[in-house]
Design a protein that fits this description.
Layout: H1 2-16, E1 29-30, H2 35-43, H3 48-57, E2 61-62, E3 68-69, H4 75-107, H5 112-117, H6 121-131, H7 134-144
Antiparallel strand pairs: 1-2, 2-3
Helix pairs in contact: 4-6
Length: 159
């Protein structure tokens, strides 16, 4: 009975909530209307590398200085920003995870310090292949309690 009441209350709150309003951007103007941007276009040298981009930028929004800005007030712009961010985070995680797994693998072998300097290439390539799936491996290790160290394993300075 409590669950049904909670479900009904949730549905009621969901449909009675006021929809969000998008704030209108009053500081940015279309670049073709910006005096500073038009001045930049007039002063730019006439070449393929300046004329084409400036014509494309004229469709964007510009600030007071005449430089184009990307306001993430539309979903398409947010997706355009989210894709490079996700690619960067995946790549950075891949690099970190492959190095981490290589260091953990050589720690179990003899002459670990030597293998930090002189890299065991076949082992490292195997670590890199496994690091392609680092998000799944990180979730697995987090759920298993292997990703983070326990409090008693962390050394505390005596100072």
């Amino acid at each position: 009975m409590k669950r049904i009441f909670a479900l009904i209350l949730t549905i009621f709150i969901w449909f009675s909530a006021v929809s969000t309003a998008l704030a209108e951007n009053t500081t940015l103007v279309p670049c073709y209307k910006s005096a500073a941007f038009v001045e930049r276009m007039k002063n730019a040298p006439d070449s393929y590398y300046t004329t084409k981009p400036l014509k494309a930028y004229s469709q964007l929004l510009c600030g007071d200085d005449g430089l184009p800005r990307i306001a993430l007030d539309r979903l398409s712009f947010a997706v355009d920003a989210a894709i490079p961010i996700a690619i960067f985070l995946y790549t950075a995680g891949f690099i970190g995870w492959s190095g981490r797994s290589y260091l953990q693998a050589i720690k179990k072998q003899e002459k670990a310090e030597e293998k930090e300097v002189f890299i065991d290439v076949p082992l490292f390539i195997g670590c890199m292949v496994m690091a392609l799936f680092w998000p799944a491996a990180a979730i697995k290790e987090l759920l298993a309690g292997e990703l983070v160290a326990k409090d008693e394993e962390i050394p505390i300075s005596v100072r």
